[in-house]
Design brief:
Rossmann fold, five-stranded parallel β-sheet, 6 helices, CheY-like_superfamily
Length: about 220
């Protein structure tokens, strides 16, 4: 299921990392009119101290001025992108500055000087692109976890074949029915099945049977 599209930003918090000036004043005033609160994190020696653990993906938005060349300093998650939408403020459209904003997680850009009419569109794109990317990342992570646990499913199928005299199709179908009956994933059910019923080592060939290839 695709993530819902966010259209109302009232109650969100904008963290604006930029130098003072008329353009930023326009941005602040427009964000406030849209129902956001605005904060300006302190910048010291080109670094911005942010505790990523306090940021909320559903409520916070980062605005980063690419012309400042600042770096987000986060001791606990130094190698990770911010867990919130990032919108890059662009004055000089140099490839290096655009790349730096992309590397900090920007999903939308807002030209300087900021025009009132462009703020809502940029918010809409930046936030919803971030939500779509996060949803894809979660799906990929889930897929990778399930893939790593596929061997557990194969071992459970082999054990059921040995104990109950079933062929691989019947054993797989039975395990799926049982996992659906108790409302858990096939991998979790197979792991519990092996822990509760296996008293001997189950030999599984190094090459996984192809019977699972088209069933996921």
């Amino acid at each position: 299921m695709a993530p819902r599209v966010v259209q109302n930003f009232r109650g969100s918090r904008a963290l604006v990392i930029a130098s003072d000036g008329g353009s930023i004043d326009t941005l602040d005033a427009t964000l406030i009119k849209l129902g956001l609160t605005v904060e300006h994190p302190a910048i010291a020696d080109g670094l911005v101290e942010l505790d990523m653990r306090t940021l909320r993906a559903e409520a916070d938005i980062l605005f980063i001025d690419g012309d400042l060349g600042v770096t987000l300093a986060c001791e606990s998650q130094a190698d990770r992108l911010p867990p919130v939408p990032v919108i890059g403020l662009v004055g000089v459209e140099a490839p290096g500055r655009l790349k730096a904003l992309l590397n900090q997680g920007a999903t939308a850009f807002l030209r300087k000087p900021v025009h009132v009419g462009a703020v809502y569109t940029t918010l809409f794109l930046g936030i919803n692109q971030f939500l779509q990317r996060r949803d894809l990342e979660l799906q990929l992570d889930d897929h990778q976890k399930r893939r790593r646990r596929r061997r557990v499913v194969v071992k459970a199928i082999v054990l059921m074949m040995q104990r109950d005299g079933l062929d691989d199709e019947e054993a797989y179908a039975q395990l799926r029915r049982d996992s659906m009956r108790v409302r858990c994933s096939l991998e979790d059910y197979c792991e519990d099945y092996l822990n509760c019923r296996s008293t001997t080592t189950v030999d599984v060939p190094s090459a996984e049977p192809r019977l699972l290839a088209d069933r996921r």
